[in-house]
Design a protein that fits this description.
This protein has one helix and no strands. It is mainly α.
């Protein structure tokens, strides 16, 4: 079970990181 939870959490982190990265890239380009 713990293995499955780890994978799910990693996927969550990846999704959140990619969601934050997009606006950050836009900000950098506009500077």
């Amino acid at each position: 079970m713990k293995e499955v939870i780890k994978v799910v959490l990693l996927d969550e982190l990846k999704l959140r990181l990619s969601a934050y990265e997009e606006p950050l890239k836009d900000l950098r380009d506009s500077l």
